[in-house]
Design brief:
globular; Jelly Rolls; about 30% helix
Length: about 325
């Protein structure tokens, strides 16, 4: 794969055809995927404070040439690049459609799988902007560009939907479907949780049962909660920041059980958390953590502001194991 194609993708200048070819190349082999991830890290480091794309590209080429001469420097360079990602939260990961084991098909359906520990941002053919949270699967049919604006969501996403009165935008989740009337909103609907949470920022959003019957509409500032266990819908006025701050790299917890906190941290950081104290799981937590901080720093904050104690156990070829006591 031509390096210029990769850097055009990273800078947001690649054509749809180039993006398609890039993803096909990445999925061809593990080595291609590793090369892409390495290239992305180098690009981030060399373009940190450079607004000029041409200068950034020249810096990128020079950096890659230097790194290829020395394996040790290559390793250290990537470590520094990763640390800059954590410190400055540059957001390149949120702009990428693929990293790690994510996959994208360009056949009848498009399926985007965001790995744990990552975010993705994309713009659909109708102009709709979607930010996908960690561990999310998002899909739509090949006829989307022809006006069949129906998408499916397993995970969490923030939508800014382009208005089109003739072609309604429908989002399907396990428990409820949503009909969009040109609006901005957040949906959290992970299959494993068997519940859906929707928060409307602006516009109008209808919610439908699985038979397609519209049950009602949300107004800005409202949050809808629905649990598959009780099949009951609750709508309340909320602080919007509590439900949308994740897309800015912040996680706000208000009156949440530590077991739920653990689930979110597992998605954010690609770790496995085991709570060995049953009483700790039900303890309520209030606080805010920054996603761009390393997991050990987040755990120190939790330890100071709650009663938990933790133990980190690194593992080869598996997510880091963390015990909470």
């Amino acid at each position: 794969m031509d390096s210029s194609t990769i850097t055009r993708y990273l800078s947001g200048a690649a054509s749809e055809q180039e993006v398609k070819e890039l993803f096909q190349w990445i999925n061809t082999s593990t080595e291609n995927r590793k090369d892409f991830i390495e290239t992305k890290k180098i690009w981030v480091l060399t373009s940190v404070s450079c607004e000029n794309k041409e200068t950034a590209w020249q810096n990128f080429i020079l950096a890659k040439q230097k790194i290829s001469k020395n394996k040790f420097l290559k390793k250290k360079f990537i470590q520094v690049a990763a640390s800059i990602l954590l410190i400055f939260s540059l957001g390149f990961a949120t702009q990428s459609l693929i990293s790690g084991n994510s996959k994208l098909w360009y056949s009848s359906d498009t399926i985007i799988e965001v790995p744990v520990g990552e975010m993705s941002k994309l713009t659909l053919s109708d102009g709709t902007s979607v930010i996908l949270n960690s561990g999310t699967t998002f899909s739509y049919s090949g006829s989307f560009s022809e006006g069949n604006r129906i998408v499916q969501l397993d995970g969490e996403a923030f939508f800014d939907v382009e208005k089109d009165a003739r072609h309604p935008f429908i989002i399907k989740t396990k428990l409820l479907d949503f009909k969009v009337y040109g609006t901005s909103f957040n949906i959290e609907a992970y299959l494993e949780s068997n519940k859906v949470s929707t928060t409307l920022v602006k516009g109008s959003l209808g919610f439908l049962n699985k038979n397609g019957e519209e049950l009602g509409k949300l107004v800005p500032g409202e949050n809808l909660q629905c649990s598959g266990s009780y099949n009951k819908i609750n709508i309340t006025e909320v602080n919007l920041d509590l439900y949308t701050s994740w897309k800015k790299g912040r996680i706000i917890f208000r009156n949440e059980k530590l077991e739920d906190v653990a689930t979110k941290l597992e998605r954010w950081y690609n770790v496995e958390i085991v709570i060995r104290n049953p009483e700790l799981a039900d303890e309520v937590y209030f606080g805010t953590v920054m996603k761009n901080k390393p997991i050990d720093q987040i755990l120190k904050v939790l330890q100071i502001t709650s009663s938990l104690k933790y133990q980190i156990i690194p593992r080869n070829d598996k997510p880091v194991l963390i015990y909470w006591d």
